[in-house]
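Dear V.,

Thank you for sending over the compound details. I've combined the ligand you provided, flavin-adenine dinucleotide, with the protein sequence from our construct and run the structure prediction for the complex. I'm sharing the raw inputs here so there's no ambiguity about protonation or stereochemistry in the SMILES, which I know was a concern on your side last time.
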Amino acid sequence: MARIFWFRRDLRLADNLALNSAIAGAKDDGDSIVWPAYALNSTDFFELAGIRQHSLVASLESLDESLENQLTVLNGDVAATLTAFALTQGALTVHATRAFDPAGVAEQNAVGLALKDKGVFLKLDDSYYAVAPGSVKKPDATPYRVYTPFFKNWFALGWLRPQALAEGAKFLRCDESHQMPEATKPAPFTVKAGEQYALHTLARFEARALNGYDENRNRADLSGTSHLSHALAFGEIHPRTILDRLGDSAGENVFRKEIAWREFYADVLWHNPNTVTEYYSPVYAEMRYDTGASADEKFEAWKAGKTGFPMVDAGMRQLLETGWMHNRVRMIVASFLVKDLHLEWQQGAAWFEENLSDFDPASNAHGWQWTAGCGTDASPYYRVFNPILQGLKFDPNGDYVRKYIPELAHIEGAAVHEPWLLIDGLANGYPAPILDHAKERDESLARLKELKADA
Ligand SMILES: Cc1cc2nc3c(=O)[nH]c(=O)nc-3n(C[C@H](O)[C@H](O)[C@H](O)COP(=O)(O)OP(=O)(O)OC[C@H]3O[C@@H](n4cnc5c(N)ncnc54)[C@H](O)[C@@H]3O)c2cc1C
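Below is the predicted structure of the protein with flavin-adenine dinucleotide bound, written out as structure tokens.
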């Protein structure tokens, strides 16, 4: 008898409770054989931006290396390929980590049913979180809608200590079924990923930036954050492993709270699966948003980083060049899309999904909704980010803007945030602002008033 371990967004060996459960089962079976497999749907894969394709390939290659080249990568419909694989290997149980997001739940339901039809059991364990979504509840047993009390209760519940990989498994690969994907689009740099790289990233962050995290995490021009989001999104590291290493300094406490935002949004999405694409506060769906050719043109300018607002454009270009964007700048560009361009948050979220190598359904949908003012615990709708003031505050010397916008490299210091004020500011082809922020802010507030009047 053999067991299959289905790797999903848990591409690691250490601290993987579902994998340990597969190994324990295989030992009980008497042969200790586990067939580790990843099921890829290449139609979805080909749609990803180049950086996202390359980062998934790098993660899988790294995982395969850790497994001494015993990973089978299946290609095709996930339920169909996994079921066929289980039947070929004579497996009666497929093990996996339980997903809580709508797409992950739909996928595991489809896989579970297809396997059951052939007499194979899908055993789901653990989650991608320190505390599984749905576990943190208010005293009246209803879910939290506000972060701070969620955090207190989440922290009080606590989590397991990280678990090492169980010993004694015989990992085997099926060469006939194995099809490692190849990226079809280029990436602008060699993407590094995988479990060892995640641990290295964590160690580098601990040595260089964790101490000052509370002070520096909002500064776009500093490398003040961990850059662990890709590793967390793909499960190259489990949050337990990170949390276990945190002490009680100011930097460590704030960092723990940021990890908890990821857990909060996963919990919110678990209780409200429709909010992956729908408004958490449905009233905002009734707001007046712009559509048509002019709106499309502005959306294109936003995507390309050509709005004429340096802090917005630097962020959008950082996304295209690196597959990542600083959190503060994600908020600035999201606010700009909703409150200056008057577009719906879902348009921006879809662009992020296509390009972010750390894409996470819960953090993306609810990061957008929070900033747009329609989410949980949201910043009030009338709080509109001023892209110039945000730039001056969080990139005070203009280094971040100059790094991503070569047309502005000739401008020294903070003046780069308002290049139109300088005689040669727009000399290298950088566009003039496509809109008047003060005017659009008023327009946004007027639309909010209409909504309230209708309510
Ligand atoms: C509009 C918008 C969209 C976003 N989309 C995503 C997304 O698709 N995937 C994603 O992982 N994060 C998303 N975030 C959250 C945040 O921007 C990133 O997690 C963070 O920038 C990643 O960088 P880091 O690893 O250096 O973060 P650090 O500051 O080092 O934080 C450590 C970890 O905590 C978690 N975290 C930190 N801040 C947040 C937050 N505000 N919300 C949720 N989790 C957080 C992340 O897992 C992060 O890796 C989004 C935020 C906004 C405003």
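A first observation: Strands lie at 2-7, 33-40, 72-75, 91-97, 121-125, 170-171.

Warm regards,
I. M.
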